[in-house]
Amino acid sequence: MPPEARLPVSAFIICKDEEQYLGNCIESLSDCAEIVIVDSGSTDGTAELVKSYAAAGWPIRFVYEPWRGYAAQKQFALEQCTQPWLLSIDSDERLDEELRDELPRLLGAPDSVAGYRFARRPYLIGFGYTPKSVRERKILRLIRKDRGAFDLTLRVHEGILADGDVLDCEPGSLLHYRPLPVEEQILKENSYSTLKADMLLERGAQARFAKFFLNPPLYFLRLYVRNGLWRCGFPGLIQALTGSVYSFLTEAKIYQRHALKRRPSHDDMEGAPPRTLPIASAPAEPLKKVA
Fold this sequence. Notes:
The protein folds into 2 domains: about 5-175, Spore Coat Polysaccharide Biosynthesis Protein SpsA, Chain A (Alpha-Beta Complex), CATH 3.90.550.10; about 180-260. About 35% of the residues lie in helices and about 25% in strands. It has helices spanning about 20-25, 45-55, 70-80, 95-105, 180-200, 210-225, 235-260; strands at about 5-15, 30-40, 60-65, 85-90, 95, 115-125, 130, 140-145, 150, 160, 165-175. Strands 1, 2, 3, 4, 5, 6, 7, 8 and 11 form a 9-stranded mixed sheet that branches. The protein has a two-stranded antiparallel ribbon with strand order 9-10. α1 (about 20-25) links the parallel β1 (about 5-15) and β2. It is elongated. This is Putative glycosyltransferase EpsH. Its EC number is 2.4.-.-.
């Protein structure tokens, strides 16, 4: 696409070792006037991939920045952008065709509109992308320059705080392609739940039996029933259950962090006097029969 035909949008991406996914993300951004990619130290072929796109004429600025944390890294990337509208997108996401077609209309919004939320449809192993009938949560991803910033208090599930009205974009979706097998997805949920628990503890969160008991099943029911993952068969069931595991791990870690402060783990056997075992006497020799 010639430069003059591109939309006044800066798409920004943070990445590290995303060679496997980043190419299709860049391809979906061909309408954007600028693509800012902030790398925190890739050791795979990510840098070479990005440089090949830049050499082919894509409007890419490739920046290295040491890892600051999710929210701070995305805020740094946002601040490198120069266009009137900014699009936050992950390296394993891509704009579907409907959303690409809708972008020009969104950019003509009145000044009172600061940004737009998009649905994000994940790819499920054994199914594909969730259908449009599934109610995926909408996330603020398109923002006017100088009208939004990331909430730096969030360690995980970082989001943009907007200065002005935020509307939902109905046509189109972000497609999230990272089909992790369940053993890898559980590791990811474990890592994210640690970040979430530590963040909540900093805010004074306490372990509550009701939250421990209710949050995981409610999380599952929200995803599976209300959002409609039941439409995706076993893949949808697995997706909802792994989400409930994330909720359970978060609550469990909050409890255990407090429990360890109240009662540090201690082996009750340490320092105990050794047990004195009775000394077994030698067995008596059998009586010999006297002739």
